[in-house]
Structures are given as structure tokens and as C-alpha cells.
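Incident log, support desk, overnight shift.

02:14 A customer reports that sequence design results differ from what the structure should imply. Their input is reproduced verbatim below. On-call engineer (initials T.W.) acknowledged and began investigating.
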């Protein structure tokens, strides 16, 4: 009686794979979408936004002014620097620099738009004040006498560089244009006719008015003069601000949402003052003075004005992150040269190209056909990275600087490392005696876990650097994280499907073509040794 043989346990093979043409098609479709957006949206320019060190920039120096004429404290300057940096991040002005230099803040932004740097340095003291009176602005002489009118002319602006003189000018303007609650308003009504609301006129009271007193202020466009009551809501009570458009006219507005006591006070105030005007003042100028039509019970309130899209976004940004603890006087914008950065870029690109060529030559000599697949994968990865950087420059203002280029080069090198991990796993499987075709899915099953783990560690490191770092280091971390994500995408959607297709090709499966001849020989010798070892065992059992 013969005992039936027990079925021997077999190593389960990898699960059935998706046809390789599907992920390849998905990646090529994604690449087509990216470049469709590059060429057919946003002006169609395929050029990324460059940072200060590559394209140059504009520098504006902000000189701090205190009400009492004393030098600002380090705490005030640091707080102002932090708020301006928050505004930079809110605007997406990547690559900008904010530096404390003595009693000054130096803001440098990419490009040649000095207005953007001045906007970032806006004091942004917002108050909501009731309107007591409004009259059209009266044109004033070009150089009024400072003693009679209290308005500084060109000589007053020059003397504003002296702190003591600046403090005296602020006090004089408060005497002429402000009065405590309950005071006689006749002098303020008379002052309204003497207000110089020309946009080029220097106003020492800008951002320095007392919010708990009446105020004579100009509209932002200089067409009207307002007599305003003491503030009823402080800009520090704003929880959020965003730019939008009206549904009827489509004009740009700023939507603000109040918090704490202001959120409860505003509906009550608007219900009790229907038909009256209420002014939103920003740095002592009336931005908007709408008439209350009905009680406002919604969480958001609209600030309307003659805003462009950029004006609305800038105002929402400065209101969102709060007012500066100091008022600043901005200098004229000066251009920052990019000569040094361009030389460094040229040297870096040459070094990167030499290194990339060396890697590709080594891959071709060592892996042969697999080296060609490495080259194709890197080219497709580079094309995807470039297109995404162009789009990020349009959508979030991301600028590419030297640190960012370093992150890109390191990330592409990490992508090549993932290829090496995959190919070596295939070779390990072939050393076990398997053919190229059967080794590919098994090698991929073990390689992808290593690729996931390695890229996860790199992405976490890039994220930590981005959160903790400042300045150009954040650009390095951002591009490193971006290329890490794309490494996974390219390996899964491009490299692996290409290797699968190669393993199914009779020509590419030849050891002399795919560069796996030595491994195939090791596998052949191992199979022969196993067969030779089994022959004596068989003969011995036959005896």
C-alpha cells in the first residue's frame, strides 16, 4: 500500500498585476494636463518665477517712527518683522526677505514691483468709526505754510527724518484734527476745509491717530473729507479677512469677520443706526464709508471701495495678520542685482549636468537596458517637476532660487536611488534561479516597501525643515518634498511598468541586452548545481 504524497507547500507568487500600459497612460495623461495648463492658462509662458538671487529684486527700507520720537524697542521691531513675514506668506511672495537693520526693516521682494514691498510694510491700523460729517475735499496750494495750516509741505517731509521733529508734527496734527469725546466740534468742521487730501501729500498723522477721539480724515482717493467719531470696533477684533467680488456688479470687495465682543456688538449697532454712514479707516484714511441699509446679522461684513483685484487681496492680507506695532516711512525702491546669483546658477547647472551625465553613463554601463529605462524615467520626472514649478509660480507665487534648485537636484538623485533599489531586488530574485520575467514582479513586491519607507523618511525630514526653517532654506525643503512625492509617482507609474514591458520582450530579455548576463550565469550555475546534487540522491534511493 502506498502512502499518498502530501502536497508540498509552495511560495505564493505576487498578486496579479495591473496591465503596465494603464499606469503609463495615466502618467502621460497627467503630464499632458500639466503642460496644457502651462501653455493655455496664465499667459502661456513656460518660464518659472525666479527668486531674488536669480532674477534680482526690489528693496525698500522702512524707517520706524514712534509717537514720542524715541527709538523703537527690539521687541517692537521683532514683532513687526514677524507680522510682515506672515503677510509675505499670506501673499505667496515666496523668496522675499525681511531683515532688521538697526531701527529699520529692509524688505526685498523678487521682481521690480516696489509697490508690493511698500504694501507689506503698511501699518494697517483699521478702525470702524461713525461718520459725523462729510464734505468734498478742497484743493490746497502746492506748498502751504506749515505754521498756519499745520500741514507739512516738502520741507516738512524732509525734516521728518528727525525723530523729535516727527513727534512734534504728530502732536500738532492731533491738536488740529482730533478732539476728545464731548468736545466742541466747530474747530474740526473748520479744519475740514483746510485739509490737503492730495495723494502726494505727506501726512505725519498717518497710522498715529488716537482711536478714542474724533478725527478729521481724507478718503483714500482724496476726493472727500470726513469728520469721524471715536472708534467703535478695533481692527484687532478681526478674526479673518478675504478678497471677493459682489454678486451684482462684480466689483472687488474685502470681506471681514469679527470676533469676540465685536461679533456681538456689530449686529446691534447696525440695527440701531440704519441710514447712517459708518467709515472703515485704514492708517488714518477712509477706505470705505457705506450707508447702513439694514441690520447686518451675517458673520461677514463687506468693505467696499474702488478696489482692483490686487488692492483687495493686499488689504485682506494686511488685515488678516494684524497691524504693525510701529508706523514706518518707506524709502524709494532700489533694484537688487542678480549677477552673482546667475553666475552661481550657471556653475550649479554645469555641475548638475556633469553629475547627471556621469550617473547615466554608469547606469548604461552597469545596467544597460535598465539604464536606458532609468534615463527615460528621469527625463519624464524632470519634465513633470518643471511643469509643476511653473504652475506653482502662477498659483501661489512660488519662486525658484538657488536653494530650491539644490533641493531639486538632490530629489532627482533620490529618484535614481529608488531605481537602483528596484533593479537590485530583481537581480536578487534572479540569483535564486528565476528568469528575468518571473523575477520582475517578485523583485517589485519587495522593492516597493523599501521605496515607500525611504521616501516617507525623506518627506518627513523635508516637512520638518520647511516648518522650522526660514528664508531660502524653506525653498530647499519645499522642492525636496515635491521631488520626493514625484519620485514615488514616477517609480510606480513609469519605471515599474517599463520594466514589466521589457521583461515581456524576447529581445530585451536577452542577458546581453538587459545587462543581467552575469546574474543569469550565476542562476544557471546554481540550477546545475542543484540538479547535480539531486542525481546522487535519486541513485541512492533506487538502490
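02:41 Re-run completed on a clean worker. Output:
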Amino acid at each position: 500500500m502506498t502512502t499518498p504524497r502530501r502536497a508540498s507547500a509552495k511560495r505564493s507568487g505576487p498578486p496579479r498585476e495591473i496591465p503596465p500600459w494603464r499606469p503609463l497612460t495615466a502618467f502621460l495623461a497627467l503630464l499632458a494636463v500639466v503642460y496644457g495648463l502651462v501653455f493655455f492658462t496664465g499667459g502661456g509662458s513656460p518660464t518659472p518665477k525666479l527668486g531674488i538671487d536669480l532674477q534680482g529684486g526690489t528693496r525698500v527700507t522702512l524707517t520706524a517712527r514712534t509717537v514720542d520720537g524715541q527709538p523703537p524697542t527690539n521687541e517692537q521691531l521683532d514683532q513687526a518683522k514677524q507680522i510682515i513675514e506672515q503677510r509675505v506668506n499670506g501673499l505667496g511672495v515666496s523668496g522675499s526677505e525681511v531683515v532688521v537693520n538697526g531701527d529699520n526693516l529692509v524688505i526685498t521682494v523678487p521682481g521690480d514691483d516696489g509697490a508690493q514691498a511698500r504694501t507689506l510694510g503698511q501699518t494697517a491700523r483699521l478702525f470702524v468709526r461713525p461718520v459725523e460729517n462729510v464734505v468734498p475735499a478742497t484743493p490746497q496750494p502746492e506748498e502751504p505754510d506749515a505754521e498756519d495750516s499745520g500741514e507739512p509741505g516738502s520741507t516738512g517731509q524732509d525734516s521728518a527724518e528727525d525723530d523729535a521733529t516727527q513727534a512734534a508734527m504728530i502732536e500738532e496734527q492731533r491738536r488740529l484734527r482730533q478732539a476728545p469725546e464731548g468736545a466742541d466740534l466747530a474747530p474740526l468742521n473748520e479744519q475740514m476745509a483746510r485739509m490737503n487730501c492730495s495723494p502726494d501729500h505727506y501726512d505725519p498723522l498717518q497710522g498715529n491717530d488716537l482711536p478714542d477721539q474724533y478725527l478729521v480724515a481724507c478718503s483714500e482717493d482724496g476726493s472727500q473729507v470726513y469728520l469721524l467719531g471715536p472708534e467703535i470696533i478695533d481692527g484687532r477684533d478681526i478674526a479673518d479677512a478675504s478678497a471677493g467680488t459682489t454678486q451684482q456688479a462684480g466689483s472687488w470687495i474685502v470681506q471681514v469677520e469679527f470676533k469676540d465682543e465685536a461679533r456681538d456688538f456689530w449686529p446691534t449697532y447696525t440695527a440701531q443706526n440704519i441710514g447712517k454712514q459708518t467709515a472703515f479707516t485704514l492708517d488714518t484714511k477712509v477706505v470705505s464709508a457705506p450707508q447702513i441699509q439694514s441690520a447686518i446679522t451675517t458673520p461677514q461684513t463687506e468693505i467696499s471701495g474702488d478696489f482692483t483685484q490686487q488692492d483687495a487681496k493686499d488689504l485682506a492680507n494686511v488685515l488678516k495678520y494684524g497691524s504693525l506695532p510701529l508706523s514706518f516711512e518707506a524709502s524709494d525702491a532700489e533694484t537688487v542685482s542678480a549677477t552673482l546669483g546667475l553666475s552661481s546658477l550657471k556653475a550649479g547647472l554645469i555641475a548638475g549636468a556633469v553629475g547627471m551625465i556621469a550617473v547615466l553613463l554608469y547606469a548604461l554601463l552597469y545596467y544597460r537596458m535598465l539604464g536606458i529605462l532609468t534615463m527615460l524615467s528621469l527625463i519624464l520626472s524632470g519634465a513633470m517637476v518643471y511643469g509643476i514649478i511653473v504652475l506653482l509660480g502662477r498659483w501661489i507665487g512660488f519662486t525658484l532660487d538657488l536653494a530650491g534648485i539644490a533641493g531639486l537636484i538632490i530629489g532627482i538623485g533620490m529618484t535614481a536611488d529608488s531605481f537602483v533599489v528596484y533593479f537590485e531586488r530583481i537581480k536578487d530574485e534572479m540569483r535564486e534561479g528565476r528568469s528575468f520575467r518571473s523575477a520582475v514582479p517578485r523583485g517589485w513586491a519587495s522593492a516597493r516597501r523599501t521605496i515607500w519607507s525611504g521616501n516617507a523618511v525623506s518627506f518627513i525630514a523635508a516637512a520638518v525643515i520647511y516648518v522650522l526653517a526660514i528664508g531660502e532654506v524653506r525653498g530647499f525643503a519645499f522642492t525636496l518634498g515635491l521631488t520626493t512625492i514625484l519620485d514615488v509617482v514616477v517609480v510606480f507609474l513609469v519605471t515599474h511598468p517599463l520594466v514589466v514591458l521589457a521583461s515581456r520582450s524576447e529581445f530585451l530579455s536577452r542577458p546581453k541586452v538587459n545587462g543581467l548576463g552575469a546574474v543569469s550565469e550565476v542562476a544557471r550555475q546554481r540550477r546545475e548545481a542543484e540538479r547535480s546534487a539531486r542525481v546522487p540522491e535519486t541513485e541512492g534511493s533506487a538502490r
